[in-house]
Amino acid sequence: MSKSAHIFLRAVILLGFTLLLFKLIVTGDISRFIAPRMMPYFYFALVVMAVLGTIQLFRIDNEKAHDHDHHEACNCAHDHDFKGSKKKFTFVYGLFVIPIFSGLLFSNHALGSSQAEIMGFKHELRQASESGIYAQEVVPEDEEEIESDTKISDSEISDGDMVEAHSDDEFDEYQSEDVHGSGEEVGYEDANLSTNQTNQEDQDDVYEETGLQYLTPSVMYPELDQRLREAEHIEITDENYIGVISLLEEDPSAFEGKTVSYIGFVFREGDFKENQVVAGRFGITCCTADAGIFGLIATDERFQDITNDTWVRITGTLGTEEYRGWQLTTVEPESIDVVEEPDNPYVYEQFDYEEFFE
Amino acid sequence: MKRFFREGAIYALLFLIVFVFLFAEFINLDERLTISSRVLDFNTIFLSIFLEAIPFVLLGVFVSSIIQVFVSDETIKKYIPKNPIGALLPAVIAGAIFPICECAIVPIVRRLIQKGMKLHVAMVILVSAPILNPIVFLSTFYAFQTNMVIVWGRMGLAFLIAMLVGLVIYMLFRNRLNPLRSEFGAITSESSKDLPMKQKIKDIFYHASDEFFTMGKFLLIGAMFASFIQTFLPRELLVGFGMDPILGPAVMMVLAYFLSLCSEADAFVAASLNQIFSPSAILAFLVYGPMMDLKNTLLMLAYFKTKFVLTLIAVVTAIVFPTILLFQAFWY
Questions:
Q1: I need a surface site. Which of A125, A234, A288, B99 has the fewest CB within 10 A?
Q2: Which of A170, A194, A210 is the last residue of a domain?
Q3: Which chain A residue has its CA at the smallest distance from B24's CA?
Q4: What are the φ and ψ backbone dihedral angles of B187, each rounded to 5 degrees?
Q5: Are residues A224 and A341 part of one domain?
Q6: Total tally of structural domains belonging to chain A
Q7: Residue A25 counted as domain residue
Q8: Could you tell me if A193 and A90 lie in one domain?
Q9: A268 is in which domain, residue-wise?
Q10: B93 backbone dihedrals φ, ψ, rounded to 5°
């Protein structure tokens, strides 16, 4: 394959990418891949792709005239890219062609219950992804686990303590920290709900020293938190979805008895009862690869007729329930209406991290 | 004749792309074929990682092309002191100034060695430049804005490890070794300094697209691999060892080596694994990957003697792993 043929093929691929990016913007399907906050970078990519593709087209003539002599002055070892077997090139260029076609043809797909099933509606995992800071707290758990098994019995005691302490306002925030942090083991071993107050305190020290702050939902959305606590009825919208669900989960008992109204798709965990579902949506921070499920567990006889991936609007009363050792926020539906899938099935993180860290 | 067919095939590809671009809505392939939603999930996550990474890859490719065309190696060399230990710090700083990722740094370092740069100093630049640069910082920041410890930890550890690698390489080889394969021993590279401006600008764009293709294929393989894990691997299976203080980082280092992600994009892939692996395992991935991976091993083997490449891999691995474990022990 001559160098000019390579360059022609590359021009076609680059222009193919340009068309893909352009189409994603025009159809709005781009929102199914990356969060709105990343869009400026995406426009930059579109322009650069178009320019590179066009320039490659002009380069062909240049190369046709120069084929075979070493003209590139920079000696930067890119030329080796143009040497190799036919098989290798078919594979390499095939790689580039795949996203062009799969993007143009299947850009309309949105993650649903199949992905939810793989990820699992396990709060400890979700929380870890939602705010990386929670994830840090997980490691000491493991270390402790390795150090000695005897600690589990201690932890069971503190588990009980925590449940009691829960009604105490002072401990409230503390407990929710712990629930998120010590998650990994809890879901699977039904033990040590909050193993290590000491580790927790160490963590606090570290954060004090470094000036970093725990990013708990109530720290992230103080105004929303205030409003929700005062409200009788909570309307969950596209904009406040992630914030509201996170706040409800942070302190389930505070919102018990309030009414709520929201939409979401239905899916079931393996160990759910027949009339039990999670109705929720995928929330995205940067791109779909970091998607996490935001939703509430709902129990109602009417769900038996509603299949996975059906979109519903639920209006009901908030409650709490124990699930895999967790106190979770639930909704007791009064009305369940099947609705159309929204134009944009995802919700996005509205919290502005940059401002927060400045 | 052969050429005719080849060009015909490329035109056919172009036609097909334009056709699908215009008529995908009417073809409606996703409804005609009953494709498992899991495969579509895979495709969606694969595309999202790729689309998210493209702007950053392009940004890196451009800056690196500009430097390749406008900054001469002599300028870099001038600022590196003669004292072997004293040269380590400036070398890391040089690495930090150059926003060049692991693909582009290999030929540059090769040239620096040819022009008389000390081996250990060149190795410091080789391992630090792909991590300690503003674009990698930016993409890591965007991927991990919820966890600044990862962002600063990545930069800090890369700084420290790069110096240690330089020190160990110096102690192992002093200046005795010529690590380059004999065929590269005598070549003196030309610089584009004397070319007219128009040619320089053209070169930047040519470089940029060549580099996009050089790196793009590794990015695509990486995005595929990562989205495959995302869509087909139940999280429950990984929770056990992903959070393991020893196995977690070890597995992530192996993953980083074989995924061969571009350091400008790996943060996004790592972010997608954030749920499964502990922060120190994520850090192991983010620090080890750009320093040493399958792709730059291959690139290095093109210029360097096999024995030297293997030694370097061993040294980097033997330094990164304990450093991550130490970081983990002291931070948490």
A1: A234
A2: A210
A3: A105
A4: -65, 130
A5: yes
A6: 3
A7: yes
A8: no
A9: 217-357
A10: -65, -40
Cα angle: B209, vertex B214, B219; to 5 degrees: 110
Residue type, A172: D
Residues of B in contact with A42 (CB under 8 A): 51, 54-55
Beta strand ranges found along A81-223 (DSSP E): none
Task: Report pLDDT digits (tens) over B8-52.
Answer: 888 999 999 999 898 887 777 767 777 888 899 999 999 998 898
Q: Hey, is the C-beta of B275 within 8 angstroms of any chain A C-beta?
A: yes
pLDDT in tens, B267-320: 877 876 776 788 889 999 999 999 998 777 877 887 789 999 999 999 999 999
Domain-by-domain residue ranges, chain B?
Answer: 1-34, 37-331
Whether A91 and A13 share a structural domain? yes
In degrees and rounded to multiples of 5, residue A167 shows phi and psi of: -70, -25
The residues, any chain, with a CB within 8 Å of residue A1's CB and separated by 6 or more, are A82, A86, A89, B6
Tell me phi and psi for residue A113, to 5 degrees. Answer: -65, -30
Residue A234 CA to residue A248 CA, distance in Å, equals 10
Please report whether residue A99 resides in a domain.
yes
Chain B residues close to A107, C-beta within 8 Å: 47
- Does any domain span residue A121? no
Question: Confidence band (pLDDT; 50, 70, 90) for A45?
Answer: very high
How large is the average pLDDT for residues A156-181?
Answer: 37
Among residues B283, B316, B86, B42, the alpha carbon closest in space to that of A115 is found at B42
Closest CA to A191 of A159, A145, A150, A146: A159
Query: Within a domain: residue A124?
Result: no
- Give the distance from residue A139's alpha carbon to the nearest chain B alpha carbon, in angstroms: 6
Same domain, A345 and A275: yes
CA B75 to chain centre: 24
Amino acid at B49: I
Single out the residue of B92, B173, B152, B101 nearest to residue B128, CA to CA: B92
Residue for token pair 């991976």:
B293
